[in-house]
Amino acid sequence: MRPRRKLLNKVIQQSHKKQKNMAATKWVLDPAHAEVQFKVRHMLVSNVTGHFKTFTASAETEGDDMTTAKAHFSADINSISTNNEQRDGHLRTGDFFDAENHPQLTFEGAGLTKVSDDNYTMNGTLTMRGVSKPITVNVEYGGMIKDPWGNNRVGFSVTGKLNRKDFGVSFSLVSETGSILLGEEVSFAANVEFVQEVPVAA
């Protein structure tokens, strides 16, 4: 075999070995330091806000490179709360989230694209009420620290908007003059902390 060909093969083998040895870093949500909220315009003059009491999230990166993050989020629709039991019950019905048939809201995202400083965007797929649509969310990276217990910890603030009718949530309230009293645009925000999962020794 020619020396140049041998050198090329060696470089390729080393590259494959490096990629194989770069183990994925897994991150688990710290639920004590996480919240997911939303708001929608009501009566054209104010906003109704709410949150999910129960949700999970996880992420996976190549090493500690957050731009390679693959994220998964899931919220329990039955845990929705707007501080009004009657309204919360209505939101769980077929007029809105249809929790009986679609008990989970999910988001799957991959990769962070830098916008400026610690601000990024992430493209992904949001599934709500059985409808999946592409969506882009804004992500502010809060940084990475080692907490008092020796764990690596990262924080993010996530914001975005969506049109609820795109996901089959078409219920409307109309005034006597024909004005729509329930907004179609929904804003959401999440503040989350993740802790690096420590591999269990074999």
Structural key phrases:
eight-stranded antiparallel beta barrel, mainly beta, 2 helices, Lipocalin, elongated, 202 residues
Structure characterization notes:
13% of the residues lie in helices and 54% in strands. It has 202 residues and is mostly beta strands. It has one domain: Lipid/polyisoprenoid-binding, YceI-like (Lipocalin, Beta Barrel). Strands 1-4-5-7-8-9-10-11 form an eight-stranded antiparallel barrel. About 3% of the residues have low confidence.
Question: What's the short story on this structure?
Answer:
With 202 residues, the protein is mainly beta. The protein is built from 2 helices and 11 strands, in the order H-E-E-E-E-E-E-H-E-E-E-E-E.
Mean pLDDT: 88
Structural class: mainly beta
Report how far apart the termini are: 41 Å
Strand order of the largest sheet: 1-4-5-7-8-9-10-11
Query: What's the CATH C level?
Result: Mainly Beta
**Morphology:** elongated
CATH architecture: Beta Barrel
User: Mind summarizing the main beta sheet?
Assistant: 8 strands, antiparallel, barrel
What is the topology?
Blueprint: H1 3-21, E1 24-29, E2 35-42, E3 46-52, E4 55-62, E5 65-76, E6 80-81, H2 85-91, E7 104-116, E8 119-128, E9 131-146, E10 152-163, E11 182-196
Antiparallel strand pairs: 1-4, 1-11, 2-3, 2-11, 3-6, 4-5, 5-7, 7-8, 8-9, 9-10, 10-11
